[in-house]
Amino acid sequence: MNNIQELVETGKKCFANKDYVTAERFLRKVVNQNQRYADVYNMLGVIYHVEGKFESAIEVFQKALEI
Which end of the chain is least crowded, N or C, by CB within 10 Å? Predict the structure, then answer.
């Protein structure tokens, strides 16, 4: 699965199902390819918040706002 849109859609589906571990894996692939999707950064922020990674959550929320 290399198509960016497929990665985003799969990540969104996993996120909606609260499968945050899998969602993070797909969403990170999108971010690692220098793609700028505010909703992807926002979902990562929620995941990091749920996991208690508050500094990481703040960083990705800020990136979402910049976009």
Answer: N
